Amino acid sequence: MSQNKNKEILENPSEKVKEVPDSNILENPNGKVKEVPDSNILLFKSCLVSVEYPGIESSTCFVFDKLGIDYFVSDKQTCCTGLGHYSDIFDQFTTTVLGARNFSLAKTLERPNLVMLCATCYAINKKVANILNNKDDVRERVNDVFEESDLSDLKFEKGDLDSSANIFHLVDILYNKKDEISKHIKYDLSKFKIATHHGCHYCKVHYDDTIGGVRNPMILDDLISACNCETIGWYDHKRTTCGSGFRQRYSNKDLSMDVTKDKLMALKKDDVDILIHLCPNCHVQFDRYQNLIAEQSGEEFKTIHLNIAQFLAIAMGADWNSVVGTQTHTIPIDSIIKLDELEEITNNNCDNEDSVDDKGGN
Amino acid sequence: MSKLTIEETPLDFAESIINDIKSSKENGVLKCVQCGMCTSTCPAARHSDYNPRDMIQRVLEGDMSIVEDDSIWNCFYCYTCHSICPVGNSACEVNQILKQFAISKGINIDKISQYSEFGDSYLTKAIGGIPSVFFDDIREDVGEDWWEFKLNLDNVRDDLGLAPVYPPQEVIDEVGTLLVNCGFKERLDKIKQADNNSDLEINDVCESCDSLESKELCASCNKKVADSKESN
Strand A304-307 and strand A187-188: pairing? Predict the structure, then answer.
């Protein structure tokens, strides 16, 4: 028994997610069981998604609708401060006040499950929830600011919202529905060489609460499997940052591009067609700057960059201009994926071996 | 039984980091065994003179000159060190706290003043955005297609069935009040005052959205300043 377990660890150092038979329950690498919601969701808008790759939001809505996820987008939710926070302009207290305001909105809307489109929103909001629950002096100061502003209804009471139980990333919600995903796949994308980039602020910040592992993160790879495709799995620099480094991309560009080039060279070595993202900041770094790095280094790179929601939307047959938003990309998506050459897969085929019959109920 | 007394003063520096609002690792700094795993896996260490192991050592020695050290500004905030530290320290968090110490002391303010527009953008539109001082560089690096897309953003969002980027005015007003009362507005004003680099001065007002901006495209409303001035 223990030998088998050791063998499994050796063969699979990825701390792969264990599934508990009941639906909606997933176990993280530390054996902590957590429930992943499919309703009462506040889909949290991201500033970078909104202004750089808005197709990530519309693709997420398209995929959530297909999967029957109950979500809502509110115009009253404001940004997590992420870009300013990690450029050191925003201090942690201000970020905590603004986070508490968004948590209060979720509570008022009776949608306590916050789902992030961006890895940094995910990390920031989880940290804010931890601070509000665990640092009593900070919570009191935050509530004092609300009172002083005549906004006492925004006050946060300890336990109002929990970092682990209430704050999720889009990929957590999708992972929980991966059997359902398989049933909606229209196009066969298995001929492409696909790799994944997991976004540091998803995997590495709250690493003890992340589904799918941190040393060799696999959650995106498993989601790609649900689309009847396989990724290349591990590759050199799989864990490495995109290189944006927040301020580094603008103030320290050579350093930033050196790190991004490490990863692009690794992807080139493995002849990768598509890199799958879960964070818009990583997406900007690769999609917007790949041509510059190619020009400066004399290398050629062919990889296109898609968020997991965009990849799923394409696989499910969504329109590229009115849903996927490929027109906002710098590296043209059709340089790799030719829509008119894609083969449709029949319903029988798209129910792959992992898929199960409709469980009924929830 | 012999008793070893440790000089407490050097650890005051580490204690001030442990007690910082950003610190999520209880006593993490004090647990550091100087194994160097952080530096071994650090992308900034691979490509620059930043050395997170050395940074933690200097913190533990009470060497406050680390706050003024330029190399700490090379951290990517990728949290690789944080995720891999065998004793549960977080060099990445320590780095962020050291930078906040630097800002509060007015050290290396020029390294963040270019980013003050994130704050302006939040104050006027309740959302962050890439500061417009970087737009010329981005246009040159990424290309005119990106620029055209930015100018056409509202139409693209419309095609995708998405609502406007910015929240309603009552939300912006509410958030503005909070940013004043939590001290952020004052912090931002001080950061701007402390910066003496004339290249970074924010000169113009985009009249259509009443936002401060610098070059020709307003970061808050994505309109050309020339257009908004003509329309007024």
Answer: unpaired
Residues of chain B with pLDDT under 50: 197-232
Place of tokens 């950061």: B191
B127, A79 contact by CB (below 8 A): yes
**Cα–Cα distance, B106 to B113 (Å, whole number):** 11
Residue type present at position B190: K
- Cα separation, A236 vs A262, whole angstroms: 9
pLDDT digit string, tens, across residues A212-224: 878 899 999 999 9
Residue A329 in contact with partner chain B when CB distance is under 8 A: no
What is the C-alpha end-to-end distance of chain B, expressed in Å? 83
Pair A38, A170: CB distance under 8 Å: no
Extended beta strands in A6-124, E state: 18-19, 25-27, 33-35, 41-44, 71-72, 113-116
Query: What is the DSSP-derived secondary structure letter of residue B224?
Result: B
- The closest alpha carbon to A122, from A49, A182, A58, belongs to A49
Using CB atoms and an 8 Å cut-off, which of residues 196-225 of chain A contact chain B?
Answer: 200-201, 203-205, 207, 214
> In chain B, which among 166-205 make CB contacts under 8 A with chain A?
167-168, 171, 174-175, 177-179, 181-184, 187-188, 191
3-class SS string, B21-89: CCCCCCCCHHHCCCCCHHHHCCHHHHHCCCCHHHHHHHHHCCCHHHHHCHHHHHCCCCCHHHHHCCCCC
Write down the pTM of the prediction: 0.87
| ipTM summary value | 0.88
The answer to whether the Cβ–Cβ distance between A96 and B80 falls below 8 Å is no
> Do residues A283 and A307 lie in contact, with contact meaning Cβ atoms separated by under 8 Å?
yes
- Minimum-distance CB partner of A89 among B115, B127, B182: B115
Please name the residues between 33 and 92 in chain B that touch chain A, using a CB distance below 8 Å.
Answer: 43-44, 46-48, 73-80, 82-83
CA distance A104 to A94: 16
Asked whether the beta carbons of A235 and A267 are under 8 A apart, the reply is yes
